Each structure stands twice: as structure tokens, then as C-alpha cells.
Amino acid sequence: MVRLAAPLFFLLAIQLAYSSTIVTDTELNYSIFLPENWVHRVVSPQHHRFYDTTGNYRSQINLIRHSFCNYDYPTSKDWTMVNFIAYELTVKNVHNPLGIFLYGDSSSSLIQPDSLQAAEIYARFCYLDESPLYWEEFVRFAATDTFGYEMYVLGDTLDMQNNVGFYAAIIQDIHLPGETMDQNTAIFSGRQTAPPFDRRQAAQVLFDLKGRKVPLRDNAGYEASGLYLPGQTAIANDRKIVIRGSSR
Questions:
Q1: Which residues pair with 123 in a beta bridge?
Q2: Residue 130's pLDDT is what?
Q3: Is the pLDDT higher at 182 or at 1?
Q4: Cα separation values, 205 from 67, 146, 202, 224, 231, Å
Q5: Which has more pLDDT, 145 or 3?
Q6: For residues 86 and 75, what is the distance between their CA atoms, to the nearest angstrom?
Q7: Third-level CATH fold of 6-200+236-244
Q8: Is 206 or 243 the better-scoring residue by pLDDT?
Q9: What is the pLDDT of residue 64?
Q10: Beta strand extents in 26-177 (DSSP E only)
Q11: Chain-centroid distance, C-alpha 226
Q12: Sequence ranges of the domains in the chain
């Protein structure tokens, strides 16, 4: 198991503080410390990407903001935990690419600055083919009000094993807005936005409420709204790029 040690993050945070540029985005409402030679790219209105222009750090950091409504997730912590569980279950049950769970933390002490409950996972994947392809992903979830943030880095195993602490330190210091809604009454605020995932898409991996995998052949036509990751997420698209090969 790979442990992302706290002292390492502390030292990296000091390094970033002395050699970084603060990027603040008012549309997605976040701020991030970018090291020297790193740039910010807008992929879509809800998806931003950050990477090193020198190529010394080959993996790219991504931030995606999802909208959700309080009927589906009564509190922002619910969104965070559901997505954490869904990702963990996907890693442990996916077959090609094969997922390997390395590390996870969803404890209450894990906070996204300044005050949001966070959850994170580090996983390795292998695309099974004549020439197997390996890569790793570090993913962190956090949410506020009716917006969920998916922050992740995806790259080849050598770069990730050498630099995952560096990437994680950048992600873990992304500042997100605090709660402005009363979470005890948020469920009554009405359906304001669409849920983060398309309900009409058939589940690829389906689980019951106890986390047990349900064979899809017994649930033909079932339209899931919860614990699965649909095939068209940004991470899934980035995996396709890794497998098929593509320039930045």
C-alpha cells in the first residue's frame, strides 16, 4: 500500500508557497497554487486543467465542478461520500482496465481548504492487452452547497510513483468556497440544477445499498441514479486517451 505521508505534504507545501503563482477563477469559484512553469487551461466551462510546460512533471491535474440538487444529496458531504464510495467500488470491480486499490481516506479529519469534508483515493490500473498498459490515478472529492468538485491527477506509473506527493499537495491545497446554505434545511430548497450524472444512462457496474455487486443480467433496463460511475465521465475520457495515445 502506498502511504501519502503528512510530513511529505508539509515539506511540499512549503516548497509551493515559495515558488508558486496563485490562480483564482471566479466562474468555478476556486483558487490554486501553481508551481513555477505550470499553466492553467480551460477544457470546458466546468473543467479546468493544470500542467507543467517543461515536461518534468508529465501528469496533468484536473478540476471539474458538478452541479447537484439537495433532493439527491441532502448535504454536500453526501455528494462527497457517494462519489468516493462509487469510485472505490469501481476500482475494485472493474475488469478491463483492471483496478488496484492502493490508498483511500474518507475520515472526518480530511478537509479541503478552508472547511469542506473531503475524501481521496489513489489507485493503479492495467489495460489488459497483448502489451499491457499501466497508469495511476489520485482523486479527491469535496462539495459545497449544490456544487461538487472532482479533483484528480492521472499519469503513467513511473511519473506518479515519483511525484504523486507533489501532485497531491497541489490538489489538497485547492481552496473552495465554504458552505452558504443551511444543510439542515437544504433538502427543502427545491430542485435547482440537474444531477451530476445522466440518470438515463444504464449502469455499467451496479451495487445494492449494502455495497454488494448486482449482476446486470438480473436488472435489464434498470436506470441507476446512485453508486456507479458512468462511462462518459472526464476520468473515463482521460483513460481512453492514455490507452489510445494522444497529444495534449
A1: 101, 137
A2: 83
A3: 182
A4: 22, 25, 9, 10, 10
A5: 145
A6: 17
A7: Protein Transport Mog1p; Chain A (3.40.1000)
A8: 243
A9: 95
A10: 30-35, 38-44, 47-52, 60-67, 98-105, 111-112, 116-127, 133-144, 147-156
A11: 16
A12: 6-200+236-244
